[in-house]
Write a structure and sequence with these properties.
15% strand; alpha/beta; 7 strands
Length: 264
Amino acid sequence: MGDAVNPFSSRYGSWAVVAGASEGLGAEFAKQLAENGMNLLLIARQAELLSGVAEDIRRRHGVEVRCLVQDLADTELARILQEATADLEIGIIVYNAAYVPTGRFAEMDPDSLEQLVRVNVQGPVTTIRALAPAMCERNRGAVVLVSSLAGMQGSPGVAAYAASKAFNTILAEGLWAELGERNIDVVVSCAGAMPTPGYQRTFNMGAPGMLDPAVVAKRTLRALGRGPRFIPGAINRMAAFLTTRLLPRKAAIRVIGRSTRRLL
């Protein structure tokens, strides 16, 4: 596909990295980027699912797709990423991966909490730090982080997960200012609930304003250059306004707590 039709590669570079690409929103980001002419390096732990996504994208869009079967909690992640991308011009980084343990914080397995910090917090920090310097040298690129409406206030039942998503939102806002000086677009997608396999495994319930992952991916990528923070969906934007601007903080936490009480 030519750059005149799909401008992402001419605007940012010819390759995109998608972390957490084996299903759900990550797979949709990969498909949308391929539709926009980007070659892909897809990262996830589940080799079979990842391979299926890659093959479907190659068949539909004719772009080059590489797979890196990798645990994003790995302490060697920076080195592994640098080796995997040594011959690539990475134009877009999408960090979608997340680990979501549920329940009462004081009763959670400490190993689960450590995994959450490694995947949800250390993972994006390491990934961006490993790949952004080359973008800065080329003076172009883009970074997409995926946060959550849960990260806009304390969320009982997913307290640590919500806190990790708040971290990603604030990280993206700071990077939007810093990397913007190097012509690198940054946006964080504060998504609401989506009917992804991961959401169904964790929550198995509906929610107002649910959007298809393909819609969230498409709208988020369109928001590049208009960051730093983007909330897909009118109902989700109304909910965010309610909990962050209209309600007192205590009331907002209680409202969210009523919807997550079943996780405790």
